[in-house]
Amino acid sequence: MANRDPYAALRYKEFNVFLLVRFAMVFAWSMQFVVIEWEVYSLTKNPLSLGMIGLMEVIPAVSLALFAGHIVDQKEKKGLLLKCILGFSVISLGLFLLTWPKIVQDWSKNTILYSIYFLVFLGGIVRAFLGPTIFSLFALIVPKKVYPNAATWSSSVWQMAAVLGPALAGFSINLIGVHWSMCLIFAFSLMALLILTKIKKKPILNPNIGEPVIKSLKEGVKFVFGTKIILGAITLDMVAVLFGGAIALLPIYAQDILKVGPEGFGILRAAPAVGALIIMFTSAYFPLNKHAGLKLLGSIFGFGLCIIAFGLSTSFWISVIALFFSGVTDGISMIIRQTILQLRTPDHMRGRVASVNSMFVGSSNELGAFESGLTAKLMGTVTAVVFGGCMTLITVIFTGAISPTFRKLDLRKDLEEHENGI
């Protein structure tokens, strides 16, 4: 049976190509975000400026999310993904030019800063379409019976790229500087474009092509808010990410608190992804479907504890360990949430459901960055991180107390139905 074969999804050639594309894009995007964080904080020495990076990306990502979901459900997925990657490539090229001393030597710091924010804003537009497109294409490449296994491998590749991207960013800033680091990012985006050509065009499964936008959006939102398990999983993860956004403040910890420089920054930035990657590979052999609700609640509670430990630490290696285990717990949460979404979303609504998910969870990363930057400015960096971790714990306790259905969630029945082709 597919859910007992840890390599079930990898037996489909196009899925392997899909994983390579996803790796290249996540690697480039995560590396770019870290390089931008470093450059912006180096220019301003202001924690609020780090929060502004997240805000500039989240405004268009949230504003366009529902519309993007409608477009994704109406269009051919491979061609749409090609356009998204091309848009990211243009933005990366722009950042490469913005960090070229010969070009910006006569520019003021504010001009450079606002130009970076503008390109980050454009990246938010691209991201509004990118997430739903990848989510929808995923479902067209592998059969339903291997969705859970494919979700595990897809998330594992995501985390692997999230490990290597930030780690390489820290080392490359130290070795070749911000400018040539951006050149490397641009090269990875071009590689993703080339690899994507190996995937064939896919059919459009939406039976309502040409459906009015407003009606389409209402249907998608109604489905999410009417499906309590999906809504609960999305909301819980959103709040945890929103208040647990300590990652956005890592440049401050690396430069001013722990004083470990760009190499230490790279290690700190990669530690959560290493933890998540390990748990994801492990879950391919030991699925998390039994008692999924309790495991999701427990993992996010553990995440909050790790964030508090990191916030209070003044030791580099204790901080690394705390971030590592925050990645372990976050990886469990991600696998369970992605499995819920894939199993319980109809094919013709995947773009819209993924868009609502991006509004709740994906964009909360950037809102969390803004919240962390703002609270760090108002409370101080350490207090802001501890506050975020405490809010995460409170949210988990509240959710578990008021939702017995969520506590009892078990995905084994869903898996059996898909194994039997239902």
TrEMBL record:
Pfam family, one: MFS_3
One GO cellular component term noted in the UniProt record for this chain: plasma membrane
Transmembrane segments: 15-36, 48-68, 80-100, 112-141, 153-173, 179-196, 229-254, 266-288, 300-325, 378-402
Lineage top rank: taxon: Bacteria
Keyword Transmembrane (UniProt): yes
Membrane topology qualifier: Multi-pass membrane protein
Principal location: membrane
Claim: Membrane is one of the keywords in the record: yes
Keywords: Cell membrane, Membrane, Transmembrane, Transmembrane helix, Transport
Name the record gives this protein: Putative MFS family arabinose efflux permease
Taxon lineage: Bacteria, Pseudomonadati, Bacteroidota, Flavobacteriia, Flavobacteriales
